[in-house]
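Researcher: Here's the sequence for the chain we discussed earlier.
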Amino acid sequence: MAVLPLIYAPHPVLDRPTTRISKVDSKIHKLIDDMIETMHANYGVGLAANQVGIPLRIAVIQGPDDIRPLIFINPEIVKREGRRELTEGCLSVPGYQGEVGRSVTVKVKAMDIDGRLFRIKAEGNLLAQALEHETDHLDGKLYVERLLNKDSIYKIERDLTNDEEDSNHTAPSAESR
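Model: Thanks. This is the structure I predict for it:
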């Protein structure tokens, strides 16, 4: 497994819808393994393939209470219910968070790593939020386009104990995309 370099806004690969996977093979398995390693190395909850420069419709998600990562190939949200306001951040928009509107309940259909179709329902939890966030990535959208108020984005303090400060990133806006 390898840690892949992250892609940061406003890179164009983040603005475009990704391509569906027609065949799950060893190359896709390796990409998924590398995505999981990259997500863990960057302390992420989720990662979409285009966040590492690969415009394929794949996402991985692993919350703090999850035993293993969930893998979503060609995920599609089939139903959303309710609304809630949440604070959100993104590995492709480092150092910033903002208030967004997300669904309470999300139902998704996708393929697993073996190419089998499955459905999952997440309700009122981090998984529901992450499913919408990662699916947005795969549709070419960033959370900054979902801000409840364009002024709600704010800089967060980072623990730089094990990281070098990344001062080359500025707060993106939906208008700049």
